[in-house]
Amino acid sequence: MSASLVRRGLELLEAPGRGRAPPGLQRGRDGPGAAGAARRRKAAPEPGRNKATVKGRVVKSAIEEYHKKKAVNHLKANLRYMLKGRFVASKAVTEQVLAQNRGRKSKDQPPKKAEKKKPEGTVFTEEDFRKFEREYFGRP
């Protein structure tokens, strides 16, 4: 411990009626560090006030800060706004916008739609089948 800390501790433990020793009894300080020590003693902070804090500062609640910075879901408000309008874009315009916003990667591409095949009609008629049956099997 330094001598100044010990001195301060003794000052705190002194009886309340007694102050400092009379000036004649104080030990004199002569030497090169005397002026610096006096300046340090004079600038010693008062124990009652913390000068590191800003005057008038209000301590913020951690919960309030969390709620301020928490992400907000705007889905309901956005849907209400979008459904409120009566204008509906054409299918071609919506496809164009979606194509512009789509990336070039394969995972961003929509799945290819398989074209539905029309059932192929038969070339032969019922009469042709009966004729073939008669010729092949020999039935009348």
Short description:
With 140 residues, the chain is an all-alpha fold. The protein is built from six helices and no strands. The N and C termini lie far apart (129 Å).
What are the key terms here?
6 helices; enzyme binding; nucleus; mainly alpha; 0% strand; 140 residues; Active regulator of SIRT1
Task: Report what the structure shows.
By secondary structure, the chain is mostly helical. The protein has one domain. It is built from 6 helices and no strands. The longest helix has 12 residues. The radius of gyration is 48 Å and the shape is rod-shaped. The protein starts with a helix and ends with a helix. Keywords: Nucleus.
Strand residues, percent: under 5%
Major beta-sheet overview: none
Question: Unreliable segments (pLDDT under 50, ≥5 consecutive)?
Answer: none
Q: What fraction, in percent, of the residue positions are helical?
A: 40-55%
What best-fitting shape do the alpha-carbon axes yield? rod-shaped
Q: What's the structural domain tally? A: 1
| N-to-C CA distance | 129 Å
Spatial extent as radius of gyration: 48 Å
Biased composition (Basic and acidic residues): 106-120
Keywords: Nucleus
InterPro entries: AROS
Protein name: Active regulator of SIRT1
Q: Layout of SSEs?
A:
Elements: H1 3-13, H2 34-42, H3 62-69, H4 75-84, H5 91-101, H6 126-137
